[in-house]
Write a structure and sequence with these properties.
This is HNH endonuclease. The protein is built from four helices and seven strands, in the order αβββββββααα. The protein is 34% helix and 16% strand.
Length: 148
């Protein structure tokens, strides 16, 4: 995932090399959570189950083989290009110890960061409301509410 310019200073100067080492040398260009291969198009069902071409079988969101009873409707199969990113397990970009880093595909990364993203959305809304309280005329706010 791209690093925001305002957060760039939190990462070590050799982050690109460290990230590449984790993703490609340690993880072997596969997601360490589900096993999806880097830069390949993967057929999946949207619930974490995906087709492993090399093993000729379905895998679940943890990378374990699963059997699907019956037939899979072609309309439910989606194709996604997998891109690995290096994720901080404790959500702290300043802690770049190898034990705190994991190579994750975009699905596993977003699931891992879901609570952090919810908190960030709440914080952004809170800040916007606080700024509005400081700088907007309360009479205008009441007028807007009365029109609804």
């Amino acid at each position: 995932m791209p690093i925001r310019p305002e957060n760039r200073w939190l990462y070590p100067i050799d982050w690109d090399q460290l990230s590449a080492d984790i993703r490609f040398r340690r993880a072997g260009a596969r997601c360490e959570q589900c096993g999806r291969p880097h830069l390949r198009r993967v057929a999946h069902l949207g619930d974490g189950r995906w087709w492993d071409v090399e093993a000729h079988g379905w895998r679940n969101g943890r990378g374990r083989p699963v059997t699907i009873r019956g037939q899979v409707a072609l309309g439910s199969v989606r194709i996604t290009k997998v891109v690995l990113a290096c994720a901080h397990l404790d959500h702290d970009p300043g802690n770049s110890a190898r034990g705190n880093l994991r190579a994750l595909c975009q699905r596993c990364h977003i699931l891992h960061d879901a609570a952090e993203h919810r908190w960030q959305r709440w914080w952004n809304r809170f800040r916007l409301r606080a700024c509005r309280d400081l700088y907007e005329d309360p009479r205008l706010t009441r007028q807007r509410l009365a029109r609804r």
